[in-house]
Amino acid sequence: MEQASATAVIDVRGIVTGWSEGARSLTGYPAEEAVGRSVAALLAEPPAATSVAALAGPVVLRHRDGSPLPLTVRACAVSGADGAPHGYVLTADPGPTLAEQAFEQASMSLSVFDIEQRYLRVNDAACRVMGVAEEVLLGRFFPDSIEDAEYTRHFLRNLRQVVETGRPVRYDTWAGAPTLNGEYAWSIEMWPLRAPSGELTAVAIAALDSTGQYLARQRVALLNEAATCIGTTLDVVRTAEELVEVLVPRYADFASVDLLDWVLGADEPPTGLEGEVTLRRVAHGSATEGTPEAALRLSEADVYPAYSPPARALRSGRAVLSQAGEPDFVRWVAERNARSPEGRSHRVGVHSMIAVPLRARGTTLGAAVAVRIAHPDDYAQDDAVLAEELASRAAVCIDNARRFARERSTALALQHTLLPRGLPGQAAVEVAHRYRPSGSLAGIGGDWFDVIPLSGSRVALVVGDVVGHGIASSATMGRLCTAVRTLADVDLPPDELLTHLDDLVTHLAADDTGDEVAELGATCLYAVYDPVSRRLTMAAAGHPPPALVLPDGTANLVPMTAGPPLGVGGLPFEAVELELPEGAVVALYTDGLIEDRDRDVDHATAELCRALTASADSLDALCDSVLKAVMPEEPSDDVALLLARTRALGGDRVATWDIEPDPARVAAARQAATDQLAAWGLEEEAFVTELVVSELVTNAIRYGQPPIQLRLIRDRALICEVSDGSSTSPHLRRAHAYDEGGRGLLLVAQLTQRWGSRQTDSGKTIWAEQPLPPD
Questions:
Q1: How far is residue 364's CA from residue 345's CA, in Å, rounded to a whole number?
Q2: Strand, coil or helix: what is 546?
Q3: Half-sphere exposure (CA, 13 Å, Cβ side) for 306?
Q4: pTM value?
C-alpha cells in the first residue's frame, strides 16, 4: 500500500502548529500529541548544520515507539505580508512508491515521452541499453538521442501514431542498441497516458528483448524448411545441394557438403576414419555470387588433415565449433588460402566456422561445413545443436538416395542381364525393341520382353510386366522369363502356356511370406507366329492388346480378351488367331507406354496407332519415333516396346507329302525328299535327310496313327517334320547290343543340329533341323 507524504508546519520558534495524516502514519504521533510541541523534542539527534542551512537534508526523528526514524526532510519558508518568515512547512519523503519501484526496477526497458516525443522518464534497464543516465535524456527530443536508422524512424512513426490516434501500438522489430554488440529482436508496446480529465498527456513505452525467442523461432522455421526442402529427390548430389540452399544465407555465408567416395560408388563403407580423411566436394554455396570462397571445385577430392574441423567432426561424430583466433582455425584458413589463393580476398573477415558430420543409421557419410564472414555473430552451442539436427535430417535423405541409387543400379544390371541383348537368329519376323527404365522414385520395374525361336520356323513373341518395383520385381521378372522360355520349348499353345505360367506364379506367391507376395503379380502377352501359314496366335494375361499395322498403312488394336493377370488362378485364358499378310507389323508393349496419371488411355492408344503408321527408314527408327510420340515425358513406370514385321515362307520353300501308313511307302518318301533337295540345290544334305526321313516316317507308320504327313522347310536351316495322329511323344533311349530297334531317334539326334516333338490339335509332330551353309 502506498504511503502518503508526511507534512508538518512549525512557527519561527520551532513549535509544531500543523500535523498531517501522513506525518501521523510515518511517526506514530497523532496530531493532538504533536501540535504545540517543540520540533526539537521529536528529534532523536540534532540535525546537521548543513541541512539546517540548506533547509533540506537527512534528519533522524524518534518514532512514538522510541525507535530512530531516518528521513530526508525539506523545509519551505512561509513569509508574511512584510516579507519576513512566519514559519516553515516541513515535508518528509517516505521513499518511492511501489509503482515507482516497479518502474525503476523492471527488467524490460520502460520509458515515458511527452506528446512532442521528449523524454519524461527512463528506467534503469532503458538507461543500460542507451548507455547514459536518466538525467542526460530527460527533456531531450528522441531523434537527437539515437542514430538515424530505419528502425528509429519506424519507432518515431509509431510514437506519433499513438499521439494522433490515442490507441496503443504493438510491433516487433530487429534493431541494434548503443551499448549492445550486434542487433537484437525487440517486442515493443506503446500506449497513451491520460490525465483525469481524459486528455492525452504522454506515451508510455515498454521494449522487451525477445532475441532468444526470435532465434528459437528462426531455428524451428529452418528445421521445418529443411524437412520440406531436403530430400525432394532420390539423388545424392541434389540432396546435398538442398542442404546448402537451406543453410545459405540465413545460417551461413558459405556452406559446403563433402562426402566419402564410397557413398558415390558401389564400395562398402570404411571401417575407421583415423588421421587424414579424403572427401569429395558434391555441393557448395555462398551469399556471394559464384561462390568465390570455395577452395575446391565441385566433384574434386581433397585430403583433410587430422586437425581440420571436418576431420575432427568425422572422428568425434559431433559438431565442431571453431572461432577466429584459435590456432587450428588460423591454420585451417591459411591452408585454404594456400590451396586457392584467388579466393583469399573473399575469405577476409571469416570469423566463425562449424563442421558437422553427416551420419545416418550409424554410418558416416561425409561432413557439412558452415562459415560466417559477414554475419556478425559467432556460432554458439545452440547453433551446433541446430547444425547437428539439420545434418541428421540431410544425412538420412542422402543415405536414402544412396540406397535407392545402389538398388536402382543393381535392379537395372539385373534387368540388362535378363533381357535379351542380342535376339536369336530366326527368319519368321524382323524385330526391333526398346526398353526404358523408370526414372520415378519407385525404382526400376519388372517389364520384360523376349523373342523365342520355335520349331518349324515359328517364333514366339513375349512381353510382360511384373507388379511393383525394385530388385524383388526384377528377380520375379527373371523367374517368369525363364519359365516362359522353358514352357515355350515344350511348344505349348499360347493359352495353355499362360495357364501353366499362372500356376507357377500362384505357387511362388504361396511359398513367399510377407509383403513379397504382392510383388509376384504380373501381366503377360504370349504370341506365336508361323511364317508358313502366316498365322499369329496369341493370348493375354491382364496385358494390353497389341497394335497391328497392315501393309496398306492402317493400324488398330487387336480385338482380344485381356484375361486375368497371372497369379489370380482358376480363370481361363482365351487365344485369338489371325492370318497376316507379309510385311505386317505387330507392336507389343507394356502399360508404361500408354498409361500415366494425367493421361487418357484411349487417347494414348490412338496416338500409338498413329505413330506406328508414320514413315520410317527402318524398324529401329520406327521404335524411336513411337517412343518419342507416345511415351510420357517423365514416365512413372518402365516402358518396353517390341516391334515385329512378319515374313512369309512361300510354296517354293515348303514341300509337303501325305504318307500312306504302309512300310513300303518309306522308300517313296525318301525319294521325294531327295528330289526336292535337288530342286533346291541342296544335294549335299541328301544323305542325312534320307536317313532322317526314313527313321521318322518308319516310326510314324509303326507306332503312330494316320494321317501321316512329311514336310520339308527350307529356311535358315533345313527342317524335316513328320506328323501323325497319335499324341504319344517319342523318347530317346540307348539300345542294347542285341536289340533289333531303338536306334532310330538316337541316330537322328546325332546327325542333326537339334530335334524335338510338339503336340498338335490332331496328334503330334516330330521335327529335326540340319544347318545350312549361308547363302
A1: 33
A2: coil
A3: 3
A4: 0.59
